[in-house]
Amino acid sequence: MNFTIEILKPVEGFGSWSEENRKWIGSIGQLVANKADIGVSAFTMTTRRQKVIDFSVPLIRSRYRLFFKEPQTAYVQWTLYLKTFSYGIWISLMMIIITTSILLTFMKAKGYFSLRLLFDNYISVWGIYCQQGLPEFPKESPIRLVFLSLYISSIIILAVYSASLISYLALSTPRLPFSTLEGYVKDGTYKFIVMRNSAEYDVPSRAKDAILLKMYDLLEKKAFLPHRLSEGFKQMCEKSNLAFYTTEVFHQAINFQIKCNVVYIDTGRIDNLAMTLTKGNPYTSFINYHLRRFQLNGVMGKLKNKYLSKKLDFSGYMSYGVVDLSDITPSLTMVGASMIVALLVLIIEKGYYLYNNRSKNNKLAIKKFNYNLGVRNQLQKRNNQNLTININQKLYNTRPIGYWP
To answer: Which residue has the higher pLDDT, 166 or 88?
Structure first.
């Protein structure tokens, strides 16, 4: 075809409807005003835009995501040590411990059932699964077989638990206070930005999803919205509580320019990107024909691999690193709490012992005092009797001669 191309001066933004000026602005405004014939970029296909311009066949389908700067603050996962096994395995393990304790109690009991024996067996079984030894190994063969089975199962369970726990600790994943769009809206501490004069900026005018509309309540003011993708990711990297709402393909396109590690959450929305033409453009069918040929011949896929795939970088999403303090905080907390509880129990036992010892000493002192008092009374009584006898004896010896009592 014989034609020449004239490239117009670039305008800010893909284009959106301006309520103040009551007209389309940006690149779409150029098409509507017939100042341009074709918009060569990845424009989002929306119903509102299709009323005033034409689109080519979709070139790319991409997911909408909320991108965040990876948080640097430590996030303690209190349930990390329980995630290694499912709830069913934990329940089965507890049932094995309880059932085995009861079974050992019946095997050791000789005609009587003792709660103390049951408690001792329960502690012994727990000790086995915690890799502790027995104070003495039983002599009876059936009980030996039970303990041998417990030791074998404890070794297997410990090996599986250790391997699973190490994989959780060694694999460093992004730590956001939420993982879904609903969680983001409920959290409410993160603002977000979109490209100014873009299809994302016009979402509230056409969206019916309640969660999406609530999310747009957290949108920054228009004066702070970026004109370019690079500006949007730059703002996101400079602020800790700011998200950037855009498509995955746009993130891939400038991934090498982003200066921080990026994490994201999926929003569940898909975007169709295409070129734009003026309404009723006679070249629309011609361009669509050749674009379909490029898609069928693999040219479009080759271009995607050339300009997008090689720039992918997953280091911001998943990485392998050292175990930090936040990963072992639950275990350290458990050890510290156990020491505090043990100290409290020691203080209570010591106080109880001192109270009982003092009570016993008081009783012993009272008993000794009563005994000494009784002995003293008996001695005093005996002395009184002896004194009376002595007085009588003296009176008898000093009576007049010839006196007959």
So the answer is: 88
